[in-house]
Amino acid sequence: MAKITVQNTPITVIGVDGDDYISLTDMAKSQLQEHIIFRWLSLKGTIEYLGEWEMLYNPDFNCTEFGAIKNAAGSNNFVLSTKAWIERTNAKGIIAKAGRYGGTYAHRDIAYHFGMWLSPKFQLLLVKEYQRLKAEEQRLIGWSAKRELSKINYRIHTDAIKQNLIPAEVTKAQASIIYANEADVLNVAMFGLTAKQWREANSDLKGNIRDYASVNELICLSNMESLNAVFIEQGLPQSERLIKLNQIAIHQMSVLESGDNDRKLLK
To answer: Is 14 helix (H, G, I), strand (E, B) or coil?
Structure first.
């Protein structure tokens, strides 16, 4: 569940079978008229739109009932509730939820249609805020994926240290010194600073040097962790590994950065 805000109104977005459904109830509250959902749903144009959407995306849609409802729409005494629409046609584009976050929800396509009926400006702002939400979700997914890749390679890296550099019997404190020292080999090769030097230079920031790395730097760092594990297993001394890793970092970052510039030129 997520929230977007349109014209100072919080609007709930939930996931249903891999699709996003937006709260029509919350959207109606922005107009201070929750009952307007029934007015919108009872319009012939709305019913025709919903029917076309269902026939396109819902193989279990009851077209016979849809035809009967469409024929009845437009008369002065015609009123269609969300419950009646769902039960009679087996629709899936609009759903009714009970409980704490209950109300009427609709697939984003249908929610956009409702938003346009409320107000063109409201619909435009709704689309803008929804797109912002999805962009932020994608950014976080991409960042999370890079961090997970870094964590996996870090485990490979520390396993290589444990098996090849740590003596058979040392205290936990001694082992941590070796781990920290090896982590700084990568920090110096990539950023030119040890973790301590970065903290001293950035005492106003929270976290560590890797939390402020770019996506390209994290990709490069992940590759270096894997390579350093190989170098350790090959028995290369730390000073030699540092030089190799620094050369690799320079080369890989130049390739990654030039690739980004090429993509920018193509846009």
So the answer is: strand
Q: How many residues does the chain have?
A: 267
d(CA 66, CA 63): 5
The per-residue pLDDT for range 41-64, each reduced to its tens digit, is 999 999 999 999 999 999 999 999
Give CB contacts under 8 A, 24+ apart, made by 237-245: 238/181, 238/182, 238/185, 241/185, 242/185, 242/188, 242/189, 245/185, 245/186, 245/189, 245/190
- Is there a contact between 88 and 69 (Cβ–Cβ < 8 Å)? yes
Owner of token pair 């929800």:
105
Q: What are phi and psi of 68, to 5 degrees?
A: -65, -40
DSSP bridge pairs for 15:
20
Question: Which residues lie below 8 Å from residue 35, measured CB to CB, with a gap of 6+?
Answer: 28
Q: What mean pLDDT, rounded, does the chain reach?
A: 81
Residue 248 to residue 189: CA distance in whole angstroms: 9
Residue 119, burial from CB neighbour count under 10 angstroms (0-12, 13-18, 19+): middle
Strands 103-107 and 2-6, how do they pair? unpaired
Distance (Å, rounded) from C-alpha 190 to C-alpha 248?
9
pLDDT tens per residue across span 130-156:
888 888 777 766 656 666 666 666 665
Candidates 41, 32, 39; CA nearest to 93 is: 41
The sheet that has 9-16: what strands, in order across it?
2-6, 9-16, 19-23, 103-107, 94-97
Q: Coil, helix or strand for 23?
A: strand
